[in-house]
Amino acid sequence: MQPTENSINRIKATFNHTNKLDLPIIISGGRTKKKYKSEANIIFNKLKSKYFLNKNVILEENSINTFETSKNIKKYLENNKLSNDIILITDLYHYKRMSKSLKKSGINPFFPREIFKKKIITSKSFIPSFKNFSKINNIKYEYFGLIYYKILGRI
């Protein structure tokens, strides 16, 4: 398995924002299929030689959703007596649900918004294409996720 382009972009953004800081980096993502390694492990092993040499990297490999990620990160921070103030690097679509879930767990995420390129909407944005359908599906998935988490009291 290979990391997604989205995962690679998040790692690049993380590296760019934490390169001069002495902060631990938590890469989160559990096993989505039993026969494969965790998403966190796949991302780390693929990119460690380029981005993670001499870095304190923690692999959170047990969570399979946003809620579990929040709980597991909170537990890790408490067990290691670390601050609840973290820098959150995720994609723009997932930011709102991840941020709210972390806050519900008592974690204070800082989100460096400058990592996202300003996207200009053009007439091509409305032409049916795989890329445009994919973006719409990501947006729908995250908003339904927000509604679902709100109903369950997870945010």
Written account of the structure:
The protein is mainly α and 155 residues long. The chain has a single domain (5-118), classed as HUPs (Rossmann fold), CATH 3.40.50.620. Helix content is 50%, strand content 9%. It has 5 helices and 4 strands, in the order αβαβαβαβα. The protein has helices spanning 5-18, 39-51, 66-79, 92-104, 130-152; strands spanning 25-28, 57-60, 85-87, 108-110. The strands form 2 sheets. It has a two-stranded parallel sheet with strand order 1-2. α2 (39-51) links the parallel β1 and β2. α4 (92-104) packs parallel to α5 (130-152). It is globular. The chain starts with a helix and ends with a helix. 17% of the residues are buried. The mean pLDDT is 84.
The CATH topology is Rossmann fold
Strand/helix succession: HEHEHEHEH
CATH architecture: 3-Layer(aba) Sandwich
Largest sheet: 2 strands, parallel
Count of alpha/pi helices:
5
Distance between the termini: 32 Å
> Strand tally, please?
4
Fraction in helix: 40-55%
Query: What is the total number of structural domains?
Result: 1
* Approximate strand percentage: 5-15%
CATH classification class: Alpha Beta
Principal-axis shape equals: globular
> Spans with pLDDT under 50 lasting ≥5 residues?
none
Report the average pLDDT across residues.
Answer: 84
Structural class computed from helices and strand pairing: mainly alpha
Q: Could you tell me the radius of gyration in angstroms?
A: 16 Å
CATH superfamily, called what?
HUPs
Q: How are the strands of the largest sheet arranged? A: 1-2
